[in-house]
Write a structure and sequence with these properties.
The protein is an alpha/beta fold. The chain has 20 helices and 14 strands. The chain has 5 domains: 108 residues, Rossmann fold, CATH 3.40.50.10190; 86 residues, DNA polymerase beta, N-terminal domain-like (DNA polymerase, domain 1, Orthogonal Bundle), CATH 1.10.150.110; 52 residues, 5' to 3' exonuclease, C-terminal subdomain (DNA polymerase, domain 1), CATH 1.10.150; 137 residues, 2-Layer Sandwich (Beta Polymerase, domain 2), CATH 3.30.460.10; 52 residues, DNA polymerase, thumb domain (Beta Polymerase, domain 3), CATH 3.30.210.10. The strands form 4 sheets. Strands 6-8-11-10-9 form a 5-stranded mixed sheet, with helices on both faces. A 4-stranded parallel sheet has the order 2-1-3-4. The N terminus is likely disordered. The protein binds 2',3'-dideoxycytidine 5'-triphosphate and magnesium ion (MG). It is an enzyme of class 2 (transferase).
């Protein structure tokens, strides 16, 4: 109701004697659905929007941040009036929509013809094109700036453990920008043009460039509180709050925790301690593959045409992970509802279910995505610990030399969305976390849309998608392959 009222109050284009500009929206980069949305929006506010680019157009609006390719495209077209047209970026359009009338064209709105300006400008340096959003960067598992990003991760974690979300996210963003660079930072000057690098991050980079390491980071790493909180949170089921509580009670080791009479561990934490050695050790690709076979067999025994997809870090091409994530669903809508519980029963019968926490679906399709960054979705899911036999893994298990058990425990997550939400779930669970954060932030800040693991909404309109590519297109984003999402 509120929204409707607000829309009614929005000012319409004022009647003036000056001729109204004739807009043309460039579909490249913007995508078809967004272009038609923006066209409708502008027309509803009284603007004239041309469907084709012709000489009557006065204002060309584009979301293509690459001036050179946009201009090359414009010049390749049939229009002769290009020199007198305004070629503008979307900020002019959004400003005008907000004002309800065409705002004056300012330099900051212009997409300059770099081809005409200077020959050097035609090949922009990579620095100037790095987006502040991880979903507009391509980040493979090859990290050329590990020495810096490792330091930033420590600073991020230390702030997270002290419940300081702002600086924590700032360091995560800084790390993520450096991870996307195809080159190694070798001097401070090159970082000046990079987004998301604040003063503090710059200081850390400078320290590392000068001394090979950061004193601030070294200090954190040798701090007792940091070490103990890291140790406690490495247990499955123990978050920063619990770790802090234990630390305040004076507990400093696992044996302190286990011997403390007043502490009652929940089921998850009990399993966490029981299988600590196994689940704190990385899971290999071969082990993930073996688990895929086990889950596939279980799922197919229940529903032959079920859909099983490996997601999470392994889908992004990582060689190791802390767990293995899968999406399971069925082609028939609604049939997925009983799928997970049946899979769990089957794994139990096979004697390989070491731990299971099942969460039934609380998904309500009439609900809009939350404005908050939600860590979890409402689909049915389960957090498991499974027993994986040596003989099931090609090349054998990842075990310690002295370990002769012939099996290991592995953390596995399964999520089961209805098939019409499969693409959103796949995109949401493929990660990385930073990539997900920035996808949602981009949707909200740049497109005024809402995205989460369930859906994408433009105002109150649900935008359907059967593939991840559909979602990127709705958002007017270039498609980023899963292995380029290691932000
Ligand atoms: N996810 C998210 N936000 C969270 C937690 C998870 O968006 N707070 C998404 C992104 C990754 C996916 O869920 C699976 O989570 P993890 O298994 O924790 O991440 P991962 O990338 O698979 O990392 P790892 O390789 O260590 O398992
Ligand atoms: Mg994972």
């Amino acid at each position: 109701i509120l929204k409707k009222k607000k829309r009614e109050r929005e000012p319409q284009v004022k009647k003036t004697t000056a001729p109204l500009p004739k807009l043309y929206l460039v579909e490249r980069k913007m995508g078809r659905s967004r272009r038609s949305f923006l066209t409708e929006l502008a027309r509803s506010k009284g603007f004239i929007v041309e469907d084709v680019l012709s000489d009557v157009v006065t204002h060309v609006v584009s979301e293509d941040s690459q001036a050179s390719s946009l201009w090359a495209w414009l010049k390749g077209g049939p229009v002769k009036n290009l020199p007198v047209m305004h070629v503008l970026d979307i900020s002019w359009f959004t400003d005008s929509m907000r004002e309800g009338k065409p705002v004056a064209v300012e330099t900051r709105h212009l997409i300059q013809d770099t081809l005409a300006a200077s020959p050097e400008a035609t090949t922009p340096t990579p620095v100037s094109t790095v987006s502040q959003y991880a979903c507009q960067r391509r980040t493979t598992t090859k990290n050329n700036n590990k020495i810096f990003t490792d330091a930033f991760e420590v600073l991020a974690e230390s702030h997270e453990l002290n419940d300081m979300e702002g600086p924590c996210l700032a360091f995560r963003r800084a790390a993520s920008v450096l991870k996307s660079l195809p080159w190694t930072v070798q001097n401070l000057r090159v970082t000046e043009d990079l987004p998301c690098l604040g003063e503090h991050s710059m200081c850390v980079i400078e320290e590392i460039l000068q001394h090979g390491h950061s004193f601030e980071v070294e200090k954190i790493l040798s701090d007792e509180r940091y070490q103990i909180l890291k140790l406690f949170t490495s247990v499955f089921g123990v978050g920063p709050k619990t770790a802090e509580k234990w630390y305040r009670r004076g507990l400093r080791s696992f044996s302190d925790v286990l011997a403390e009479p007043g502490i009652r561990l929940n089921r998850m934490q009990q399993s966490g301690f029981l299988h600590y050695g196994d689940i704190s050790r990385a899971v290999s690709k071969a082990e993930a593959q073996a688990l895929g076979n086990i889950i596939d067999e279980a799922v197919r025994a229940i529903t032959p045409d079920a859909i099983l997809t490996l997601t999470g870090g392994f889908r992004r091409g990582k060689d190791f992970g802390h767990d293995v994530d899968f999406i399971v669903t069925t082609p028939q809508l609604g049939k997925e509802e009983r799928l997970l519980t049946s899979v769990i029963d089957r794994l139990k019968q096979q004697g390989i279910l070491l731990y299971c926490e099942y969460q039934a679906s609380t998904f309500d399709e009439s609900k809009l995505p939350s404005h908050r960054f939600e860590a979890m979705d409402h689909f049915a899911k389960c957090f498991l610990i499974l027993r994986l036999e040596d003989s099931q893994v090609e090349g054998g298990l990842q075990t310690a030399e002295e370990d002769r058990r012939g099996w290991r425990a592995v953390r596995v997550d399964l999520v089961s969305p209805p098939v019409d939400r499969y693409a959103f779930t796949l995109l949401g669970w493929s990660g990385s976390r930073q990539f997900e954060r920035d996808l949602r932030r981009f949707a909200r800040m740049e497109r005024r849309m809402l995205l989460d693991n369930h859906a994408l909404y433009d105002k109150t309109k649900f935008l359907a998608a059967t593939t991840e590519k559909d979602i990127f297109a709705h958002l007017g984003l270039e498609y980023i392959e899963p292995w380029q999402r290691n932000a």
